[in-house]
Design a protein that fits this description.
CATH topology: Rossmann fold
Number of domains: 1
Radius of gyration: 18 Å
Strand content: 15-25%
Helix content: 25-40%
Strand order of the largest sheet: 2-3-5-4-7-8-9-10
Shape: globular
Largest sheet: 8 strands, mixed
Distance between the termini: 45 Å
CATH architecture: 3-Layer(aba) Sandwich
CATH class: Alpha Beta
Oligomer: single chain
CATH superfamily: Alpha/Beta hydrolase fold, catalytic domain
């Protein structure tokens, strides 16, 4: 497996991202190792909040949420998925599978030995994070799901997702910052766009970002579908608190909160909230407000 590593200088002086980098090496599945980067802010002995990003962002997406969470007395931990951010990037699209992403992040989770976790998961952060929870539910105490899902291929995906798949595979001009900007209600400043582009010096580094949408189970016989169905069986028995924080302006995940609310016992009676004036990347549009809702949820004082 050829592994690319974005040079450190690409991450120098990013706006509102002063966090010290941390790294863990995990097996790559082929006898080698991958370095996974994560942000780790706040009291290391405090209850951890695991902030999981999706496609094609990285932990920079959580820069507005990390400081208030740490200030409220929590340990804010935000990893970069393999292929994104400061984490290593396998060079071939074929190196990435859904199961490998779960295995890589499971190895990372074991390396840190996080427990009593509050999971905040958006986009692919949910597709991977909810699989981690299903495998080891005893590590988690509550969940906040935001603009995400756990598809099994048994139900059709929105037309907007199919359009997105075609664009990612066919586009010759795959600019990460443009995708993030189009997925927000508020236009991003140039320096923030540059920060989202920082992990990807050239097209070779984008294999993970290119293939991710194609790994979503869209048919019942998808290789990942059985594992996701098993994860749903765990979620259907999940009685710990489960909150949905979906935005009002995401054409792909809009309405997806209802499935969680109907099927997860822990979602009953929770202060579910539709985040207004927010796109797919709701952390970018309303990060500080979402952090406040999350803190209230963790403290049991409502959202």
């Amino acid at each position: 497996m050829e592994i690319l590593r974005t040079p450190d200088h690409r991450f120098a002086n990013l706006p509102d991202y002063p966090f010290t980098p941390h790294y863990v090496e995990v097996p790559d599945g082929e006898g080698g190792a991958l370095r996974i980067h994560y942000v780790d802010e706040g009291d290391p002995g405090a209850p951890p909040v695991l902030l999981m990003h999706g496609e094609p962002s990285w932990s920079y997406l959580y820069r507005k949420m990390i400081p208030p969470l740490a200030a409220a007395g929590y340990r804010a931990v935000a990893p970069d998925l393999v292929g994104f951010g400061r984490s290593d990037k396998p060079a071939r699209q074929e190196d990435y599978t859904y199961q490998r992403h779960v295995d890589w992040m499971s190895a990372w989770l074991h390396a840190l030995d996080l427990r009593d976790i509050t999971l905040f998961a958006q986009d692919w952060g949910g597709l991977i994070g909810l699989r981690l929870l299903a495998a080891e539910p005893e590590r988690f105490v509550r969940v906040a799901a935001a603009n995400t899902g756990l598809p099994t291929g048994d139900h059709p995906m929105p037309r907007a997702f199919k359009v997105w798949q075609r664009f990612v595979q066919r586009s010759s001009d795959f600019v990460i910052s443009r995708i993030i900007d189009q997925g927000t209600v508020n236009s991003l400043p140039d320096e923030v766009k540059a920060a989202y582009d920082a992990p990807f010096p050239d097209e070779r580094y984008k294999a993970g970002a290119r293939i991710f949408p194609m790994l979503v189970p869209v048919s019942p016989d998808d290789p990942a579908a059985p594992a996701n169905r098993r994860a749903w069986e765990v979620l259907k028995q999940w009685h710990k608190p489960f909150l949905t924080l979906f935005s009002d302006s995401d054409p792909i995940t809009r309405g997806g909160e209802r499935l969680f609310q109907e099927l997860v016992p822990g979602a009953r009676g929770q202060p579910h909230t539709i985040i207004t004036q927010a796109g797919h990347f709701l952390q970018e549009d309303r990060g500080q407000d979402i952090a406040a809702l999350l803190i209230r949820f963790m403290r049991g004082t409502g959202a």
